[in-house]
Design a protein that fits this description.
The structure holds 2 protein chains of 2 kinds. Chain A is mainly β. Chain A is built from no helices and 11 strands. In chain B, the strands form 2 sheets. In chain B, strands 2, 4, 5, 6, 9, 10 and 11 form a 7-stranded mixed sheet that branches. Chain B has a 4-stranded antiparallel sheet with strand order 1-3-8-7, with no helix packed on it. The chains are: A mainly beta, B mainly beta.
Chain lengths: 110, 116
């Protein structure tokens, strides 16, 4: 059951521009949403999260937006840097476990 | 603390053999999770422990899969009678407390299993 979906398997942006990664979910019981970043041969690394009671959370170049009515969240990276190139996973939690999307591979070109 | 450690990093086994993976979580984390990740997919939840208690195991993929955390510290994941479809990355993660924190889980680097 794909409760968390990332419909774009890949995204390519120019250095300095904005990267927008999208995620949709189906379970209204999720109360935390998280973004993880994964480099090859490493486990996912936590990036940023947002509680279901908020609609925006910002941490430096990274901002996560949550639209509960649309069951949609997005991660904005601005400005994008070549070191941001990785696979980004969206995840949602209902406190018992965490469900992940299939990931979006971001490539930031110099 | 060096984070979540998983051993081995890679395992190649013949179909039908049993394999066991180990995970050492961050010492102050009382929750430990096992996930499986196949190519092109996100991590798929298998099971988790709070201290030594296994609180969810219905999502283990089959009865060939089992996990233990006997003293509430390290954990092992065993796959019996491996099949080629078991080839995947097996990820362990740990977290603090009973609630999902703002900081998510800390993942290990995973054990890549190849069944030939």
């Amino acid at each position: 059951d794909q409760q968390v979906k990332q419909n774009s398997p890949s995204l390519s942006v120019q250095e300095g521009r904005i990267s927008i990664l999208n995620c949709d979910y189906t379970n209204s019981m999720f109360d935390y949403f998280l973004w993880y970043k994964k480099y090859p041969a490493e486990g996912p690394t936590f990036l940023i999260s947002i509680s279901s009671i908020k609609d925006k959370n910002e941490d430096g170049r990274f901002t996560v937006f949550l639209n509960k009515s649309a069951k949609h969240l997005s991660l904005h990276i601005v400005p994008s840097q070549p070191g941001d190139s990785a696979v980004y996973f969206c995840a949602a939690s209902d406190n018992n476990d965490m469900r992940f999307g299939a990931g979006t591979r971001l490539t930031v070109k110099p | 603390d060096t984070g979540v450690s998983q051993d081995p990093r890679h395992k190649i086994t013949k179909r039908g053999q049993n394999v066991t993976f180990r995970c050492d979580p961050i010492s102050e984390h009382n929750r430990l999770y096992w996930y499986r990740q196949t190519l092109g997919q996100g991590p798929e939840f298998l099971t988790y422990f709070q201290n030594e208690a296994q609180l969810e195991k219905s999502r283990l993929l089959s009865d060939r899969f089992s996990a233990e955390r006997p003293k509430g510290s390290f954990s092992t994941l065993e796959i019996q009678r491996t099949e080629q479809g078991d080839s995947a990355m097996y990820l362990c993660a740990s977290s603090r407390g009973g609630l999902i924190s703002n900081y998510g889980y800390t993942f290990g680097s995973g054990t890549r299993l190849t069944v030939v």
